[in-house]
Here is the input.
Amino acid sequence: MTAQSGQASRGRGFTLIELLVVVAIIALLISILLPSLQQAKEKARMAKCAANLHSLGQARLMCDMEFKGFGPTWDDGSETRFMLTWVDVLFDTRILNDANAGICPSDQRPDEVAEARGQDWRFYFVRTMGVQDEIRRGVRTSYAINAIIHWNNKKDRFQNSARQVFAIDGWWTWFGGLNANWLASGGLGDPLSTPHWEGTMVGWRHTQEYAANTVFMDGHVTPIVPNLGGYVPNPSLNNPDRTVDTVKYFTWLPGEMPTRFDFDSYQGEIEEYRGRRPAYSGNTGEFGQPAGMPLAELCASYKTRHKTWARLPNNPRYRR
Here is the structure.
């Protein structure tokens, strides 16, 4: 065999230009496929979040049966800077088996707004207690309980339990009204005052639609997708905020103002409810709960003050 035929048998290698073309094609494919992969991962996280909320909704229904219609309170924040929450109450009573059901896999723990509120209000948490984990600003749970439901006055429960929210993806442990004003404004204002200090407690965190998974009083779970084009800077009765359809979903009464405080009288669209005040404002029991509320089992503040936590630390020192 001649030298010339030996060289021919080895074939021709790739030129630099050909290699660059291959690299460019691979990079293009990655740029096309990566968003799809990220969306698929987020949909999986959202599904896990929905399963968590379903567990919490079922735990509340069991709690209602066991404790004669009473449920957990939002947190023990008035007693400690390292709070235990309504999810911890359900876990501590052994109605909820998995404490991690209170954690949304899409929650950055803390999300931006929860961290800002934690810094402003000086509340902290660790992701894992008892291992000297990093102290973070914010709260332990990813889900916010409806403040109206937290107050446990049965007269504040709407007759159509499939439309009244029990809990939702949250940027705090509780929420007062269903709006996405801060998000719709581009997140440029102070998240603690847009529209007001109760106004950014719903956590709009899922997918490119900014959906919030929601469990209703009847136990079913569905996402609420905000209408970011319905934002009104200064909502009023004649020109209300439309970021959430509160006829379809609401905290207290259908058609309520999305920017309501939890203690506001009804100022919404349905005339027959106009001017009504929440019944919980007449509660006479300890910690603002109604008489007959089993505080030792279901009130987070009572449990901390009187050391009745069974599965979780009574002393805040050991919540770090």
Remarks:
- DSSP finds eight helices and seven strands in the chain.
- Residues 227 and 243 are 4 Å apart (CA to CA).
- The mean pLDDT is 92.
